[in-house]
Amino acid sequence: MSASGLSQEPARTRKPVWHDLSAHFTDESECLAAFIAFETAEVLDGVKPSTLINLPDRPRKCGRNLYRIWKEHGEDVIKESSLEAAVLVERNGSLLLLLYDRAALSRLLTNRGTLTILRRAGYPAMNDIAVLLSEFASRFASGGVPHEIGLILGYPLKDVAGFMGLSRREFSCQGPWKIYGDPGESLMLAEAHRQSRCRMAGRLVSGSRPYECLGLPIRTVARTGRVFLSIK
Is the pLDDT of residue 98 over 60? Predict the structure, then answer.
């Protein structure tokens, strides 16, 4: 896969995967920074509030164990970026990592539709990100996957509500997530996600440094007190 193919014609390429890029990064911390920049491309572009990454404690195809590299370098890699992180659950030699934009999640918690779905799913009234993430962590720890996680992953409300059986919209098609009702808006959003990945992949294989990709000033909202959370 060429850099030009990724950056110039994103609409004509498949969605890239990390294995396409991993060989370009030999230093462990740079490799992790590139991995995070790639996996959070949609968040960094502002088209998604967060992304969920599973890090198993085993080498990937590239030969690196990103679980162990995250343990050693993760906090340092993201501390100067616009991202924050929460470990939602860690068990059986893997961790489930949520990387998110605090301002975007804060806006979600002011959205009436989001709050309605959370309330119907049994969540307490809240306007605090730490409380929300703690509740998600508790539900993951119980062994299930809370369907309402789609809300903070930026899926359309209508699709989350449809998947949870909270609306009368019928299933219409399968995209990166299950789509209910009119698929137009959902498919456009999925394409925006794909193009973000393609652009980031193009930048990384074209020689942009991973830390620069993570630290671009693409947010206008000031952030203070970035933290690395490990929620038990």
Answer: yes
Structure confidence at residue 229 (pLDDT):
45
Are 117 and 157 in contact by the 8 Å Cβ rule? The answer is yes
* Lowest-confidence pick of 24-33, 114-123, 222-231: 222-231
Q: How many domains, the chain?
A: 1
Mean pLDDT across the chain: 86
| Long-range CB contacts for residues 104-111, cutoff 8 Å, separation at least 24 | 104/43, 104/46, 104/48, 104/49, 104/50, 105/49, 105/50, 105/129, 105/132, 105/152, 107/49, 108/49, 108/151, 108/152, 111/157
Say what the pLDDT of residue 13 is. 60
Do the Cβ atoms of 83 and 36 come closer than 8 Å?
A: yes
Cα(188)–Cα(154) distance, integer angstroms: 13
Of residues 49, 41, 162, 181, the one with CA closest to residue 103: 49
- Residue 141's domain spans which residues? 3-230
- Alpha-helical (H) ranges within 85-156 are 102-108, 112-120, 129-141, 149-152
Residues 108 and 60: their CA atoms lie apart, in Å, by 34
